[in-house]
Amino acid sequence: MKSLFARFLFIALALTPPAVVHAAGSTRANPPNVVLILADDLGYGDVGSYGATKLKTPNIDRLAREGRRFTSAYTPGSVCSPSRYGLMAGRYVWREPRHHPTGVHAPGGPLLFDRDRLTLATLFQKNGYTTAALGKWHLGFGGGDKPSGRYDWSQEEIKPGPLEVGFDTFYGMAANVGNQPRIYIENRRFVGRQPGDAVKMIGRADIEPWSPAAYYKEDRVAGDIAKKAVEFIERAKAKPFFLYVATNVPHNDITPAAEFAGKSACGPYGDFVQELDAHVGLILDALQRTGLVENTLVLFTSDNGGVVADNERLAAQWQAKQAGHTICGPFRGRKHSIYEGGFRVPFIVRWPGQVPAGTSSDTLLGLTDVLATCAALLGEKLPVGAGEDSFNALPAWKGEPAARVREAVILDSSDGVFAIRAGPWKLIERNAAPRETAKARTAKMDAENQDQLFNLADDPAETKNLWSAQPGIVKRLTGLLAEARANGRTAPAR
Ligand SMILES: [Ca+2]
């Protein structure tokens, strides 16, 4: 009897089709949680696993050790809002008419997304995920189609905002720390505001809250957001979740919390980055503690390159430079600029058992690819009107050797200068009518705003302009750029 049962069991197991066995570990049967940690102005050279030595980032390095590190990951813009829009919508922001001409969205500017646009958050939400955004939003609030809109913060309900584009919950800042309103917003309300508490608008953008105690404390913001992330992970149990943690570190002002002051070997800037690293550690520990590590994909990246000081006016970055720290690693340029330092960022994916640990890849990819990649991870097809510049990078994340994500990536500086990278080549196109910010910094702008062509394989620091020497390459890349503009998309229509 026993042996008959054993034989039956053996046959039953042998006949189980491999697809069923596979299904147990597949994404659709057991969808992973996704934690996206977006640093703010963190340069390529600010992380130990990307070459930093004057500051220590053991937790981010641990992610790299346990995951896959990309060395040719690009942000679509060299400032905050364009990259954040690209990340959420999988589309270059210069296609969006509400995009502010100076690149950076005004703190009182309207919500940058149409209500029917698929975002990373709505993608997860419609797949049954709990979705949360924490930290810096900077993608606008309110209706309207003028980039320089003025949001009325005196209203009780702050909307439309993150909750209207796919997030179940939001806790954080409207834009940069220091921008008005300087009060945390939780979902659609100011934190601490009771019925009857007045918020007055003063002039175009300033506010006067019900009490000076309403304001957050700048040096506590990063810690507060990290704490919220930990609480979210500890509470999350039943449903899979998408957690977007948009820290304000190390964006100016450089305000490390007291317990991190003096801890790095390159001054307050290094201290601030080390604080960010500690917060990454808190999030990783929370995943460990709750037993969620195995089924959670963690993506760590930055919204644009770092701020590099040319002089002591940017005191913290200057001090870091004097101490031998290179914020943008080996690259030329910085935040705002069209050179690599503005766009090339750390990009690390950890997903145990799915993404090969301790590996790296120089596959070309962009922040706009996160949307299509997450859609692939969920087994979803993006609709036609979504993710126009988003390519599926899942095979590259998973370490498939021949995986190629995209042919080219288009870069847009805050002055409105465009560049395109394809293969080793990077073409920078002179802009005959640069954006209004350019007028304020003409000398620097004139130097950057030229027809330029670099071979990044031979010349990663962009020192030798090969424009005249390589007319064939210039023609090909100029053509790709023109096509991208004319077609309204770069990713294939689905
Ligand atoms: Ca930024």
Helix and strand topology:
Blueprint lengths: L1 H14 L2 H8 L7 E7 L18 H9 L1 E3 L2 E2 L5 H10 L30 H7 L3 E7 L32 E5 L11 E2 L2 E2 L9 E3 L3 E3 L12 H15 L5 E6 L20 H23 L6 E7 L12 H8 L24 E4 L8 E3 L3 E2 L2 H9 L16 H4 L10 E5 L5 E5 L2 E5 L7 H4 L1 H7 L3 E4 L15 H17 L7
Parallel strand pairs: 1-10, 1-11, 2-13, 3-14, 4-5, 4-10
Antiparallel strand pairs: 2-12, 5-6, 6-7, 8-9, 11-12, 15-16, 16-17, 17-18
Helix pairs in contact: 6-7, 7-8
The chain binds calcium ion.
Write structural notes for this entry.
The chain starts with a helix and ends in a 7-residue tail after the last helix. Helix content is 27%, strand content 15%. Strand 16 (418-422) and strand 17 form a beta hairpin. Helix 6 (221-235) runs parallel beside helix 7. The chain has one domain (30-406): Alkaline Phosphatase, subunit A (3-Layer(aba) Sandwich), CATH 3.40.720.10. The protein is built from 13 helices and 18 strands. Calcium ion binds at residues 40-41, 80, 251, 303-304.
